[in-house]
Amino acid sequence: MQKLLQVDFDFTVPFGDEMSAMMVGLAKSINHEPGMVWKIWTENKTEKLGGGIYLFENEAYAQAYLAMHTARLHSMGITDVRGYIFDINMPLSTINHAPITKTA
Question: Where would I find the H helices in 1-104?
Answer without folding.
Answer: 16-22, 24-30, 59-75, 90-95
